[in-house]
Amino acid sequence: MPTGDRPSLAELPQRVREGLAELPARWRRWREGLRDDPARLWYSPVVRIAALIVLAICGLLVAHWLAQSLVPGGPVSHLEEGTRWATLYVSCTNPACRAHYSTQQARDFKAWPLKCEKCEQETVYRATRCAECRRWYAVPPDGPQGCPFCAEKAAQKPKETPRAPSKKSDDAEDPW
User: Would you place residue 22 in the very low, low, confident or very high pLDDT band (cuts 50, 70, 90)?
Assistant: First the structure.
């Protein structure tokens, strides 16, 4: 079977050696030709392909920058790290104390109740702000729900008794 114009693989090492031996002379001729005609640089397909790749990368970077500038950032930037500590608003459930303050605890904290800074008892839970009186309060897991301050205020108010309808007729008021 004739191989035609195709070189055999056995000749490949010899051709590579000859090409490497001619490389400095070919490089010198190309540089001299470039000095004579600078536009010759763009005739090379390797330079054209490299220029197109660099241009495509620049285009992608500009598109990426434009897309990021038009879209608002998410809740957490990729440059920010999460903290290992959380700020918790807590309140004492002891009726004699009812102190409230903020504390720093680990993010995976689960050891409730905390020890109160004021009364030194373990009666501190996560606090909530009352929508009516705007005071901080905490509710223990087995305690009554709702704001204890509003409950105390409601308990101190005297209850109004409903009035019985009067036995007087309203005919006396009418002139006819």
Answer: very high
- Which residues, other chains included, contact 146 with Cβ-Cβ below 8 Å and sequence gap of 6+? 139
| Joined tokens for residue 104 | 């720093």
pTM: 0.45
- Between CA 89 and CA 30 the distance in angstroms is 76
Q: Using omega within 30 degrees of 0 as the cis cutoff, is the peptide bond preceding 45 cis?
A: no
**Rounded to 5°, angle at Cα 54 from 48 and 59:** 120
Q: What is the DSSP letter of 100?
A: E
> What 3-state class would DSSP assign to 119?
coil
From CA 101, how far away is CA 66, in angstroms rounded?
45
Mapped onto helix, strand or coil, the DSSP state of residue 125 is strand
Tens of pLDDT, residues 99-134: 999 999 888 888 888 999 999 999 999 999 999 899
